[in-house]
Amino acid sequence: MIKQNKNIAKQGLLVAIFLLLGMAILTVGCGKKEAPEEGKAAVVAEKKESGHEGKDHKEEQGIVTLSQEMQKSSGIEIKPVAMEEAAVPLTATAVIEMNMDRTAKISPRVTGKAVKILVSQGDRVKAGEALTYIDSVELDQIWSDYRKAQGKVALARRNLQREETLFQKKISPEKDVLKSRQELEEAEADINFAKERFRLVGVDVEQFAATKGDGNRPLVPVASPVGGIVIEKTVTQGEVVSPEKTLFMVADLSTLWVVIDVYEKDMSRLKVGTGVKVSVTAFPDKAFKGKISYIADVVDVKTRTEKTRVTIDNTSGLLKPGMFASVLIEARNIGAERLIAVPEEAVQIEGAARYVFVRVSPDQFKRRDIETGRSLGKSLEVTAGLKEGEAVAVKGAFILKSELKKGELEGDAH
């Protein structure tokens, strides 16, 4: 009995020990569970604080701080935004054409066979240079008429001398002398006409006579009246040609015409001599300058436009007839518009963005994105992003841009 009681006591002691160990384990486990919760709360708080600081930093982006002394030494100039009247230039599409005042379509002056062709399409020729030679039967006829006229002149002179001698000896009357003198004048007129025919076909009669005496068959040259480029060549070796056929087209391309269709409502803004800027897709970074040289006197009834012609210098040879072009016409101040405009140098470009620097305090400038419209000479129209009265850096904006980029790089480094 006593032994049984001892066993029961022993078992109770073991249960008590196990209970105490279990409570201890539970207590430690609860402590570990609470610690991560406290750490999590601290991390969240830190993140919240960190996020707030990031927001403040973001708000500071785009701000450039520069003392007034530095602004002055850097040449930064400020100008308040104001609505102003501006003569908006006219823009139009156009076609580049040859200057027809310096272009020649060349045909032979006689019918004949092209026996010598001296140039090809694309060759550069000088004024008066022979392009081809024609073997013509007509030249033989002109030579025959010339020789006949020479014979008549010689005969008329001998008759006049004889009649003058007879008149002096009182053998023949004076009327015979007058008649002989008239016949000589007619013969001289015929020979002058024959010489003129030689000139018209481009042949020197003296050279022709010398060549004829050598037994060689003289040829008629077809020469270019202008210097320039052979644009077209339509004759082949041995082809029989006539004055109705154009054999060559030669054009001086050192100046070109830009032909514009200007709407009737805009014609009052234009005049001969108005400056024009021309741009083409082949050379997007180049601007070619010219002046209006002609304004049509007739309106096209279908399009309600008038042809306006611009003469443009092309000594560089970059422009080609047939190119399409965009034209900016510096129109007069008729019908000026009220708008906001800033100098081109005030507008900074970054990818597709356009922005200016607005002064927000004496020592601070803020980047302001804007939307630009039409080009107004040395200014750009601002369609969105600026309000009247705001102070904008119109000079030295590039320095502010450099300072802004420098600040962003330093911020990234930290």
The CATH class designation of the domain at 63-85 and 337-413 is Mainly Beta
Q: Helical stretch count?
A: 6
Number of strands: 23
Q: What's the oligomerization state?
A: single chain
* SSE class: alpha+beta
CATH topology of the domain at 63-85 and 337-413: conserved putative lor/sdh protein from methanococcus maripaludis s2 fold
Strand content: 25-35%
Describe the protein in words.
Helix 3 packs antiparallel against helix 4. A hairpin with a 2-residue loop joins strand 19 and strand 20. Strands 1, 3, 18, 19, 20, 21 and 22 form a seven-stranded antiparallel sheet that branches. Strands 4-13-16-15-14-17 form a six-stranded antiparallel beta barrel. A four-stranded antiparallel sheet has the order 5-12-10-7, with no helix packed on it. It contains six helices and 23 strands. The longest helix is centred in the first third of the chain and has 59 residues. It has 414 residues and is α+β, with helices and mostly antiparallel strands. Among the domains are: 100 residues, conserved putative lor/sdh protein from methanococcus maripaludis s2 fold; 89 residues, Efflux pump adaptor protein, beta barrel domain (Elongation Factor Tu (Ef-tu), domain 3, Beta Barrel); 82 residues, Helix Hairpins. The N terminus is likely disordered. It is elongated.
